[in-house]
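User: Just a sanity check before I run the rest of the batch. Below are the structure tokens for the first item. I only need the designed sequence back.
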């Protein structure tokens, strides 16, 4: 009966995924057992771009307090993306917010029949845009802090508007929400087709520098190897992970991935034996390591059946995400079955 239970346990673990065969060797009582866990490749969360804060008491911009410049136009999947920049002329800083009224004009100053719609590329920075008393940027250059931008777009391919002719957009009249309008002359840009309207974005400023979350520190690793590996069989070894920092290390909450490889000639760049091996540690039983504490993990390396006997370098690396940032290595002998 005991043998049957053990056999079922092996089958259940092996069914978790074809990552390793289960080791025939028993797990030491002090070691956390190996499990066939896939690497966690979840991207790190990206912070939401935030605009530069507008100081309390800053007035909203009117057209008379602004200057504007065409920054350039470029194509994108049948659309023309046109951008404008804004800077203040005084007497003080102000802010722009929201989506302005927009009219496209021909070379005679006549309003073209384009209905407004949502922009092809939504704004990346949402919120009031602080505008300082500063020169405008040169066309085709980036913004600086204290300058604001606006992006519009129109369809530039006739197949999107059968039976219509394209028109040349010579200027844009941009309504400022709190009063007045600015007319900005455009440089060379592809013709526009009115059936799809004009996409109008919101006023934007440069985002604040993103504060990226620090990568959790990794424990120090040492390898415990016992005996030779055998061609075509699982090789069991131990990895001791030690918290060498001065703070508790939550392995269960910030579980690293690991990579294990065997190289026949690591100095001259031989390929890893059997391809890449990238998995996740069985971190849950480790919990949180106090400073100076350690946890021992059983590891299983599947030695390929076509491996040649000889001395190899076993490399074990740890990392968060899709790469390893620390690694240790030891020689291991691989013998014939």
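Assistant: Here's the designed sequence for the first item:
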């Amino acid at each position: 009966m005991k043998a049957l239970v053990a056999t079922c346990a092996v089958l259940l673990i092996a069914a978790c995924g074809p990552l390793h065969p289960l080791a025939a060797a028993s797990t030491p009582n002090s070691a956390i057992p190996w499990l066939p866990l896939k690497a966690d490749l979840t991207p790190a969360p990206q912070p939401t771009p935030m605009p530069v804060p507008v100081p309390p008491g800053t007035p909203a911009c009117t057209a008379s307090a602004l200057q504007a410049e065409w920054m350039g136009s470029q194509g994108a999947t049948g659309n023309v993306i046109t951008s404008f920049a804004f800077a203040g002329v005084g007497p003080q800083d102000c802010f722009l917010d929201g989506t302005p009224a927009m009219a496209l004009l021909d070379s005679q100053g006549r309003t073209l029949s384009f209905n407004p719609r949502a922009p092809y590329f939504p704004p990346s920075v949402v919120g009031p845009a602080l505008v300082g008393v500063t020169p405008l940027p040169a066309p085709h250059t980036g913004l600086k802090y204290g300058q604001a931008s606006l992006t519009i777009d129109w369809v530039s391919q006739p197949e999107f508007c059968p039976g219509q002719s394209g028109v040349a957009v010579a200027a844009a009249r941009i309504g400022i929400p709190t009063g007045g309008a600015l007319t900005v002359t455009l440089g060379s840009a592809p013709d526009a087709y009115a059936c799809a309207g004009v996409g109008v974005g919101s006023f934007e400023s440069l985002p604040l520098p993103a504060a990226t979350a620090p990568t959790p520190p990794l424990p120090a690793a040492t390898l415990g190897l016992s005996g030779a590996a055998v061609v075509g069989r699982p090789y069991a070894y131990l990895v001791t992970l030690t918290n060498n920092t001065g703070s508790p290390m939550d392995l269960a909450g910030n579980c690293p991935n690991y990579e294990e490889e065997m190289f026949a000639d690591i100095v001259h760049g031989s390929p890893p034996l059997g391809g890449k091996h990238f998995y996740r540690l069985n971190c849950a039983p480790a919990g949180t390591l106090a400073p100076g504490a350690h946890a021992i993990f059983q590891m299983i390396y599947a030695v390929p059946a076509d491996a040649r006997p000889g001395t190899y370098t076993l490399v074990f690396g740890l990392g968060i995400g899709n790469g390893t940032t620390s690694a240790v290595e030891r020689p291991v002998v691989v013998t014939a079955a």
